[in-house]
């Protein structure tokens, strides 16, 4: 029985470590996409408020990306260096638009990824196996919530435009 208990505990650790790694990969992928969306908004958004949000988004996400890459390197985890095929497809779909429609779609995609990030960060700040990953999640959850609220406000503004 003792051997079974030890085996189960080792399996739990492995599963939790895999969840930590999956979290890091997903958050890095979303962060890369959000950076590209922010750059797109900076360059081509129809409304000044969306362009300004794009600038702030890029700045905050570059900081997060640097933290993710540093932590991944320290933990010997592989994280994406570029957008996945799905992320590239989503970005391409949005980048083919112009005018108010571009602003709406950029903000909608940012809100979608922010909500995914919020759920993941909220879960991992308590449940991550690795303490450093819990710390990263706890550090970046409050600013992410602020960014999400701002994106939702701007999306409402853009949707209300004629």
UniProtKB/TrEMBL annotation:
It holds the Pfam family DUF4142. InterPro entries: DUF4142, Ferritin-like. Residues 19-154 form the DUF4142 domain. Coiled coil: none annotated. PANTHER family: BLR2558 PROTEIN (PTHR38593:SF1). This is DUF4142 domain-containing protein. It comes from Hymenobacter saemangeumensis.
